[in-house]
Amino acid sequence: MGGVTSSMAAKFAFFPPNPPSYKLITDEMTGLLLLSPFPHRENVEILKLPTRKGTEIVAMYIRHPMATSTLLYSHGNAADLGQMYELFIELSIHLRVNLMGYDYSGYGQSSGKNTYADIEAAYKCLEESYGTKQEDIILYGQSVGSGPTLDLAARLPQLRAVVLHSPILSGLRVMYPVKRTYWFDIYKNIDKIPLVHCPVLIIHSSGRGTSDEVVDWSHGKQLWELCKEKYEPLWLKGGNHCDLEHYPEYIRHLKKFISTVEKSPSQRYSSRKSTDQYEPSRKSTDVYEVSRKSTDRREKPRHSTDRAEKLKTQGSHTDKLEKLRLQSNHAEKLEKLRMSFEQMERSRRSVDCHEKSRKSIDHQLERARKSVDRLDRIRTGMYNFMLGLFFFGYCSFGIFVLY
Q1: Transmembrane region positions (predicted)?
Q2: Which of 130, 144, 291, 378 has its CA 20 to 30 A from that of 397?
């Protein structure tokens, strides 16, 4: 099952133009290789590169006189160098980069069957034939080209940057929504992108249900989420799998990205924080500042005046601060006094309240005492009255008995 699925994935991945869109010829006068039917250009070299598999691939190298970066471009699954020729020329001009493109094994006039060996041969040529350093190389992978691009990028820790154009998560995931990686899958980009340590730009048609019916937008989105050093992605609305380079936003965003990564890491981070703190674009004019030393010598006596002025300013600032400090202390003292008075007033009111309460209680007790005294007098009067009545009755009864 694994071999069958891998074979299906490989058949999906590779659709080389048949017949090839170009022929490889040798100029009789110069001995140079040429791509027919394209005219010879002074800044374009056509090469045949040996791979570690013992095969040969065809590549083209475009020089730009102002370049500080080199783009190693791995094209899509249904194109060859003849179809990419004009685009490569335009990218080199607009982005101001050297550019190397190559045909995979089995494409154009390249032989063999191993795309990993193909991109390694192109990278080796940049290093050995053109003296290109790893930190000056930007790997660019379009569609199926994202496979060899990420495989190489995961093994080169000092790359300048990576661009993924309509990339795939893996060959199998384009056909089936599998949740894990199988050993027989091809181009396991989902597992390799976390190993890339340089800035990564991802370009893809945006949103679900777009006209990119080959590779869904979710592939680009998930790869971007897995990047270690993310760069603002370019999601192009309405684009399909093979026409994103025709949108104006494509070249603008790509130029901005390359301009950013061409700065050193420290420059990139400082420019993100504040463009006022660092101006790398002034390097060319900074060279001319050296010739101003004589003028600087004449301006040295002004340093003492400037220093005195600074000291004076600092002194006035110190006086102002001292005044503010004294005012603050005075305000704190007034606040403490106000709080003390308020506390005394609250205490006095509390005492008055207790005094009033005490007087009220004494008054009530006095009234109660007087009431008790009145009751005692009434009770004594009643007792005397009853005693008098008893005595009078007793006397009357005695008289009655006697008589």
Answers
A1: 382-402
A2: 378
